[in-house]
Amino acid sequence: MDALPTDEHMMIRDALARFLERAGGLEPAFRVSDGGKACELWQGIAEELQFTAIGLPEACGGLGVDMRALVTVGRELGKVLAPVPFVSTVALAGQVLMAAAPGLCRDAWLARLASGTARAVLAHGGHGAGDCWDAPVFWAEQSGDGYVLEGQSGSIPDLMEADLVLVPALCAGERLLIALEGETVSGHRQLCAPMDATQPVGVLELKDLRLPASAVLDRGTAFAGRCRAAIDRARLVLAAEMTGAARGAFTLTLEYIAERRQFGRSIASYQAIKHRMADLYVRLNRLDALIDGAAAGFDRSAHAPATDGVAETEARAAQALACEELFAVSAEAIQLHGGVGMTFEYAPHLFFKRATAMRALSGGPVAAFRQIGLDLIDGRLSALPVSGPASEAETGLRRAVAGWMAENLTGEFEPLRGRGGAGDGDALPELRKAWEQRLAEGGWVGLGLSEALGGRGMSVGDQVIFNEEYARAGGPGRMGHIGEGLLAPTLAAFGTEDQKARFLPGILQGSTFWAQGYSEPGAGSDLAALRTRARRDPESGNWIVHGQKTWTSLAHLSDWIFVLARAEEGATGRDGLILLLMPLDQPGIDIRPIRQINGACEFNEVFFDGAVARAEDAVGAPGEGWAIAMALLGFERGISTLGQQMGFARELEAVVALARQAREPMDHAEALGRAWAGLRAMRHGALRVLGAVERGEAGPEALGYKYEWSNWHRSLGELAMDVLGPEAAVHAPEPEIARLQQMYLFSRAETIYGGTNEIQLNIISEQGLRMPREPRGQTQSGTR
Q1: Which residues does residue 543 pair with via DSSP β-bridges, in sequence order?
Q2: What span, in angstroms and rounded, lies between the C-alpha atoms of 363 and 343?
Q3: pLDDT tens-digit profile of 46-92?
Q4: HSE (side-chain half, CA atoms, 13 Å) at 571
Q5: Any bridge partners for residue 618, and if so which?
Q6: pLDDT (tens digit per residue) in 331-358
Q7: Model pLDDT for residues 399-425, shown as the tens digit of each residue
Q8: Measuring CA to CA, which residue among 736, 550, 759, 771 is closest to residue 653?
Q9: Would you state the pLDDT for residue 639?
Q10: Residue 663: predicted pLDDT
Q11: For the segment 497-519, what is each residue's pLDDT rounded down to a tens digit?
């Protein structure tokens, strides 16, 4: 939850945004791109805002190490391609300088950087130097009381105006950090003609440069480790700046297509354009979540040093993703601007050139993801989330859940470990029902429900802990999820006191199981087109229901179903609907299983032919059904998503284990690295959304979660089959592999049920981005 911006971070963001707007927004970038200068920007950031001191030690005049503040500044600068050396001076050189041992020279330079009176760069290699920031390309030899330094760098942004050049060098196999003043290298740096004129670059070439011993700021293995950590922090700030640039390109494109009209309407109303913008929006939200999560991880480790290296790996993944997303968004900016996007007058070319330059200068996304994948294969990294520093109460809860699971998920319940997941939803139903009662006896049902209603009234954070530890222990898919996760909070919000008293106890005791009656053959993603009818019996006041529901999960194993039906004659669309609670064991209801692509029968068709819902079992009044149904779907995307992600992590671990046995594990390393990065981004995104909901600050970002996870999970299934190779053509006898094959087949449904990808993109574009709806056609009644 600590990835959410604090009031202080929002103040930093807003202050910098106002300053950059007064400075002309993109105007300084245009000016510099056309050969001009924008020195006043850096001066204002240093003197007026004092943001050059962010992230640097207070003892040297800085404002303290705060990664969330650093990435906040990086994002805002990126949005307008501000031609200032923030990343090179504060984020990269400043962080590396901090990693050196304290001393007069080091502290004096840090003070100058914090005050904005000096600019600095780190001399590094080019694309061919492996990890260009962390692979020294300079060599030093001891000569008398000093050193002789030589080597040639790659293209270094902001080199030509640097007052300090930090040179990592190797001397007899030992890493040194050498400080060179600008005057010392004035004849050794050469200006290049940059692709991105807003970011001047130069090359440093040293040959037989003699230096005093005092030029060495630090050396040795311990320093090398601190330096790598500093560079990873810098990667995250660079990722934030690139993401900010991608946001800038996205926003100006969204504004342009809203104004541009073709064929008599705004081009923003065309579905092809809306889907492209919505997809980019989800990808940018994913990237922002990863950056914020990593920044929070770095800040936590500053107080309680972490040893798992997750934040550092997330920073490398974020840099790689940012390279790709900036390129994708800027390329689309040109395409969607049309011909004017190719002109110097419009801004897309500035973003595209920045994207091209950063992709070339940052070492390449493929190599970064491949290394993450190799770390997974070699066991240096895990797909399972590691809980960071926590309060005594949080730690105690984790231990309590883990201990209870270890004690109870054994014996008769041992076969349930890892069962009931994607494609396995109808596995061992009676044993899983018994497990629900065991959970209830342990007090682990109704965690978020208020104590007054029989729940435990747990906070969002504590519910997250339970779901993570439950999944970590291999807890089975919950048979009671629809009742506990969907209906119970709906009844708490909209039900009568009588309904709460009658239905909640069965849910909380794990003795009553529910199904969801929403989709119909002609009303899947377009739920408002449903035709199931409910008509009031004038004598009893009960509701008589006729119609059909489909894709009804576990209806054949459930006791009750909640049904969305049309209660008013002649009503269409969202009007005239009602939500009814109905027992499934009654005349007039016929349940027929649907055999799925993987052979399982988790879904059902449910036919209603004069079935009865009692008058007192209607939730809300006729006409209120749509609003209640949508609120219920909102509960579906709640806390349990973290447990779902833990299940995904276990599946990714299984795929990694397969890759270790593959003939060529390296062939799968990049895809594994991408899967890990996507999973971490989803985790941080879900935590951010849940935290915002708890604070009453929920935004449109939540709209993209279903689209994001379903596509990620489908890709994981495809990766599993790629790793299996020819063996994927045969049903595996090994349970772990068989479950992956089931997951692969079932995951094709996940981008369909709950709203297809295409419908999700419509919702994201229209509700999240406020893009115009497609012009609606005419129905027989004249409206639609």
Answers
A1: 536, 613
A2: 29
A3: 999 999 999 999 999 999 889 999 999 999 999 999 999 999 999 99
A4: 23
A5: 580
A6: 999 999 999 999 999 999 999 999 999 9
A7: 999 999 999 999 999 999 988 877 788
A8: 736
A9: 64
A10: 81
A11: 999 999 999 999 999 999 999 99
CB 431 within 8 A of CB 415: yes
Q: In the prediction, which pLDDT does 390 show?
A: 65
The amino acid sitting at 229 is A
Number of H helices and E strands in the chain, helices first, is 24, 19
Burial of 692 (0-12, 13-18, 19+ CB in 10 A): middle
Are 542 and 612 a contacting pair, CB within 8 Å? Answer: yes
User: Strand 603-613 vs strand 543-549: parallel, antiparallel, or unpaired?
Assistant: antiparallel
Q: What is the DSSP string of 152-169?
A: E---EET-TT-SEEEEEE
Q: What is the phi/psi pair of residue 89, to 5°?
A: -85, -55
A 10 A CB-CB count for 305 gives 9
Helix H segments across 304-386? Answer: 310-337, 348-361, 365-377
Residue 143 is predicted with a pLDDT of 92
Alpha-carbon gap, residue 772 to 768, rounded angstroms = 11
- The amino acid that residue 313 corresponds to is T
* Cα of 461 vs its chain's centroid, Å: 18
Q: What is the full DSSP assignment across 97-139?
A: HHHSPP-HHHHHHHHHHHHTS--EEE----GGGSSTTTS--EE
Whose structure tokens read 């054949």?
556
Domain 514-623 maps to which CATH number in 1.20.1250.20, 2.130.10.10, 3.40.50.720, 2.40.110.10?
Answer: 2.40.110.10
**Does 412 participate in catalysis according to the annotation?**
no
DSSP 404-451: HHHHHSSGGGGGGTT-S-TT-TTSSHHHHHHHHHHHHHTT-SSSSS-G
- Global pTM exceeds 0.85: yes
Q: How far apart (Å, rounded) are the C-alpha atoms in residues 226 and 778?
A: 66
pLDDT-derived band at 757, boundaries 50, 70, 90: very high
Q: pLDDT (tens digit, 9 = 90+) per residue, 133-180?
A: 888 899 999 998 999 999 999 999 999 999 999 999 999 999 999 999
Q: Within a 10 A sphere around the Cβ of 345, how many other Cβ atoms?
A: 7
Reported as a pLDDT band with limits 50, 70 and 90, residue 664 is confident
Active-site annotation holder among 181, 394, 568, 636 = 636
Mean pLDDT score, 731-739: 90
Distance CA 638, CA 702 (A): 10
What are residue 139's DSSP bridge partners?
A: 150, 170
Nearest to 658 by CA among 739, 750, 770, 747: 739
CB-based burial, 208-245: b 16+ in 10 Å, e otherwise: ebebeeebbbbbeeebbebbbbbbbbbbbbbbbbbbbb
Q: Which residues of 57-79 are buried (b: 16+ CB within 10 A; e: fewer)?
A: beebbbbebbbbbbbbbbbbbbb
- Beta carbons of 91 and 238 less than 8 angstroms apart: yes
> Band of the pLDDT at 360, cuts 50, 70, 90?
confident
Closest by Cα among 181, 26, 1, 13 to 105: 181
Give the residue carrying structure tokens 């419009």.
Answer: 346
Asked if residues 205 and 190 have their Cβ atoms less than 8 Å apart, the reply is: yes
Cα 740 from Cα 651, distance rounded (Å): 7
Compare 615 and 749 and report the one with higher pLDDT.
615
In the DSSP assignment, the letter for residue 68 is H
